[in-house]
Amino acid sequence: MNKKSPLEPELNTVAVNGVTFRHQDIYNVIDDFYNRIQQDSILSVSFRSVHDWPEHIERLTHFWWIRFGGHPYLSTEYNPVTKHFFAGFNHNLLERWLGLFHQTLDDRLTLQQSHLWKLISERIGNSLSIKNEMYLRQYSKK
Ligand code: HEM
């Protein structure tokens, strides 16, 4: 059973490259995914800084919602590069994160939605990796 998304914007659908997502679709994926993260023996350790899971899930639902072009309804300040660097982000963790995320997309969405979101998540993952490498180099110089 899906839970109702606690914060739903008035305009509650977005379209990315002709593929439509309801706000509730995004919430269902994110809620399910972070429940899986909490059960994962390795990724749960990386996420030990998160104490308020419902708040994290709402914040990340909003992140994807605005990423897909939806109107912001929470603060839009995200600082993923620094946060990931300090959470110990690396290639292996990213592969595991993506594996779990893509499985959740397949379980929750239509083929078209899942395919598109996989591509977008891989692109963000690559960009996080490159920036994380730059941080690593900067910090190791000090
Ligand atoms: C494509 C892959 C990923 C995406 C799109 C993503 C996205 C995000 C975003 C948007 C946030 C919120 C940042 C903020 O509040 O400013 C976040 C937080 C977080 N991510 Fe990721 N993430 C990815 C992979 C990973 C991986 C591999 C790890 C493992 C280290 C990770 C660990 C975390 C943690 C621990 C937080 C919470 C930080 C905190 O608020 O204390 N993420 N992620």
UniProtKB/TrEMBL annotation:
Origin species, per record, is: Pseudobdellovibrio exovorus JSS
This chain belongs to the protein called: Globin
The record's section on Pfam families has:
Bac_globin
Molecular-function GO term, any one: heme binding
Its keywords, alphabetically, are: Heme, Iron, Metal-binding, Transport
